[in-house]
């Protein structure tokens, strides 16, 4: 498996280069912030008509991760849809694709701030999922332990001999994991940002996504 | 024929002035539908443009807007307003003049729409915005004349294309509109006049007396210039002598970084404490305005500057222009020289300072071209489609339109005279639906057709967003630089440059060395540094490529038997090259191969300009990799590319097969950073991406979409999409400059001279000192990232 292995609350986890999190013991694949239907929402609100291929692209990558891991359970960690209307307006092809992915495995939609309402797609809809010793929710709660969340779309930069490299990144410390956004058209929040710097412990790691996940000490602003 | 009314002749007489012949001629030809005035700086060009307007308005009969003045600079609009107010007040003319730019207040702009002045001074962007309002027909109904100032500069960019589209619109609103263009010296005035005029309409040229020939020379120094580099630091003592001997000197540089370094070195050597300032586009506006004011007041003896002083009003009493570094382009050189001595009929004085040995040759070639008044310039290509996409959105903001009408109107703009209906329809479809192979936005189209078939905005709120994005100027994302502890603003640096800084790094800005402390709320905070040598600031200053014409002159110069006009050190250098290898010739391609320090080297003297040679380097190394020649890297200048690798190239000729190069180009472009940069620019103009507002950047959550992701998505799912077609065209013209490579191959037509040598040649030697070496990597980038990550983990005492 192309991933970075680590433990959280005694559980063996693997951060995949694609931005998904794999929990081998439960055969659970976890992805955050798919933001399906983002281009549609953008156009609906009077913005430009962006290339309408991001939903297909996101599902294609998710499909590949499910196939590679043989996941028995897929957990979408909130903001799976860019808003509730985007979930309603999902093209038929995308609905069928999701239904096909759901066949033969359990599927959990965690509510996010963009998509609080239930969706009429298969799967279970939950506010959060306690799976002791871990807990899955959309937005991290300071002070929580064994917590897996999304929401912030973290990204990190490192300097290489060929210049600066910025990629979506997992943030990992001994209490929690913050997942990078999985959706194709999702932007990122630099882990320098106050919200992330305050949330994570000083010895947190950032794992950059890419062909091979790259762990680095979480970059922080110089004091 | 409009005669000079007595009130005007009295005014001229009272000031002891005589009307210039070209000013009288402008009055006489006031009825011409399109008239281009080519006049040197200081020739009373602006007054010539406005005289017919003032004469027509003198009787006070005209109601509303009469003349629209468009200039590339906001500052120029404000300045012209002040300059016009004087004659108007002194002659007691019933004329109201106002300017309207991005700096004009909201209330004033509203009032201007309700009650337009007789003369409105504006910029292409503000004009485009004005035409987007529903009341545009009322505002422009009485418009009689448009004056386009510095049209030679506007014509060089998309701002000119946008302006001509706006003029086509204005002409529909105000039939019979007359157009006047004011231009500095250009290579092809009739072409520029046609650009100004309505397509197919007559376009007249009026050329003012160009004045005496400029007094222009190469600066001779005792020490020869260095073999490579662009700083010109060796010439600083002589430059200071020249500054001392003149009232005010402008010292032009080709890039902002070079201007900063030169200014820094100048200060270190400025023992007399001469008042010298610096002016370039990355400096804080307040600081630039202080320098401009000091110059106008005559308080400065010299200003180190870049193209930021190419345009604009007379900055004080300049009597010497110094160009440091090869001029790259004869036309721009001539225009810069014109900045010296704004008194009409006095020769301009200029000195060229070659920054390195090769530039001595280039400067000599440029001097010959100036003497022969042989200006360079490429014909304008057809109007770009990204600008047309924006224009269609602007038209929709103003009100519903029929596609047929808009198509006909657009074709009345000269750059779009040859526009096909298919291309127009593709742009309209893009503006309306996104134009994707997958029809996804039926419900949310940006533009819809009503029952009469007219196109209109589906959501009127979209007008606001479209107006926010009007314009074709690309502002790369920059960050402000300020002294720590709420100190003064110093200027701006590119976001990418800021991201590469670590606390403690030093760089030059505004002539001083500062230390990078950190980033605070999107402002780069710095503190003064006592160091004498900084890490160089990589500003977004343009790197011009040497023009085709100037390159051809250099090649012709190489063909001479001897070079009495060149300094001895340079003539001897060329003679040595001829003895050891040979000199490049106009209709042949010289390839040198030789071993050096354990590696094999190949030099291709293509003279295709910096961007073209860079592209050539990328394509050649790609082909060499395929052929198992293991290239390791390359470096390019305006005239040659040097490639080094592990294997010798016994027969270089097959490498230069144009068809194979072109095939390689297609593959290479796919994932190229240049293409992504070009895509971002075009997608922003076309309205696919919205400009990053400062507020959105501050929130950290980007309102805009990563253009790289959009580019990759389109390439993967919709490779024939209009935006990709536009990107390819633009990149070929611009950064990739494959046209120059193609031109080189055509010029050479297979006549390749291969000189296989035992050691490095005189002409190749400077290439070894060039900065900007490009490593050739296979899977290199990932490897370097892994290496850097491992080092960081090790430093933190962690195992990956």
UniProtKB/TrEMBL annotation, chain A:
Keyword set for this entry? Endonuclease, Hydrolase, Ligase, Nuclease
EC category name: hydrolase
What highest taxon heads this organism's lineage?
Bacteria
Give the encoding gene's name.
pdeM
- Where does the sequence pass through the membrane? none
User: EC annotation?
Assistant: 3.1.-.-
Pfam family name, one: Metallophos
Say which species the protein is native to.
Rhodosalinus halophilus
Recorded protein name is Ligase-associated DNA damage response endonuclease PdeM
Residue span(s) of domain Calcineurin-like phosphoesterase: 27-123
Gene Ontology molecular function, alphabetical: endonuclease activity; hydrolase activity; ligase activity
UniProtKB/TrEMBL annotation, chain B:
- InterPro entries assigned: ATP-dep_Helicase (IPR052511), DEAD/DEAH_box_helicase_dom (IPR011545), DEXH_lig_assoc (IPR026362), Helicase_ATP-bd (IPR014001), Helicase_C-like (IPR001650), Lhr-like (IPR017170), Lhr-like_DEAD/DEAH_assoc (IPR013701), Lhr_WH_dom (IPR045628)
Q: Where in this chain does the record put each Helicase C-terminal domain?
A: 235-383
Q: Which Pfam families match?
A: DEAD (PF00270), DEAD_assoc (PF08494), Helicase_C (PF00271), WHD_Lhr (PF19306)
What name does UniProt use for this protein?
Answer: Ligase-associated DNA damage response DEXH box helicase
Domain annotation Helicase ATP-binding: ranges: 26-204
Q: Which UniProt keywords apply?
A: ATP-binding, DNA damage, DNA repair, DNA-binding, Helicase, Hydrolase, Isomerase, Ligase, Nucleotide-binding
Single biological process term from Gene Ontology: DNA repair
Source species, please?
A: Rhodosalinus halophilus
Family under the similarity heading: Belongs to the Lhr helicase family. Lhr-Core subfamily.
What Gene Ontology molecular-function terms does this entry list?
Answer: ATP binding; ATP hydrolysis activity; DNA binding; helicase activity; ligase activity
